[in-house]
Amino acid sequence: xxxxxxxxxxxxxxxxxxxxxxxxxxxxxxxxxxxxxxxxxxxxxxxxxxxxxxxxxxxxxxxxxxxxxxxxxxxxxxxxxxxxxxxxxxxxxxxxxxxxxxxxxxxxxxxxxxxxxxxxxxxxxxxxxxxxxxxxxxxxxxxxxxxxxxxxxxxxxxxxxxxxxxxxxxxxxxxxxxxxxxxxxxxxxxxxxxxxxxxxxxxxxxxxxxxxxxxxxxxxxxxxxxxxxxxxxxxxxxxxxxxxxxxxxxxxxxxxxxxxxxxxxxxxxxxxxxxxxxxxxxxxxxxxxxxxxxxxxxxxxxxxxxx
Length: 307
Fold this sequence. Notes:
Elements lengths: L19 E4 L2 E4 H5 L1 H5 L8 E5 L5 H12 L4 H4 L4 H4 L6 E2 L7 E2 H7 L5 E4 L8 H5 L3 E6 L2 H14 L9 H10 L7 H11 L5 E5 H6 L1 H11 L6 H10 L2 H6 L35 H14 L12
Parallel strand pairs: 3-6, 3-7, 7-8
Antiparallel strand pairs: 1-2, 4-5
Enzyme class: transferase
EC number: 2.8.2.-
GO molecular function: sulfotransferase activity
């Protein structure tokens, strides 16, 4: 299979900015759109674990916590490969140019059970087999303002994503849902609505920052795993932002060299709650808050924008 190792990505790949196509009103990249039939027909297995998030809401962090739990705190085992190979990114594929090829779908299909799979899909686009097989799903939500800031910087450094334009322009796109994987508001609300009907553990990024131990214990309980206090402390330490930022298996520096420019903004940038205050002007904040109140009026979901 051509997925063993990607070629070293040379800097000739400077113009990779994704073409965006809408699927049922959700903006996706052209490669995702062109492989959608296979994604939708994906065969989940009963022991699959799906980690679902809106992009830049603590996905990699959650993946590392889950892997550390599954490997009983064995750091070496968790460094067996990069995050995006340990946990295939279900819908993501890079089709052109050929040396950049990555197919989360193919990786997932070839992987022995039990699998942990990642997705950014809104709840209505999750392949039906996950529901049919009653798979466990961990969903992580992050407050809109910090999520927006993180997503903006990710677009700046990741040349496979559409050009974000200015901060002001990107904020507008985010508010109107004209960004990849669609509206943040619909995404967090959609998953929230389904959480009691399925085996979904709904977590908040802000809670994970404030009390990581408590949230890791929730994940342990959900996965029906038990670890010693020593292992729990090891998981806590190795999934801290500082450690993960330096870990080449989690910080996305191992591959995608011509795609992600960490000199513009590192993949693991700040991991903070409240960084939005360094980006929003007073006027932007008011506009965002007014719009937010309207869009979130129909949900019991509450987010914290500072700790």
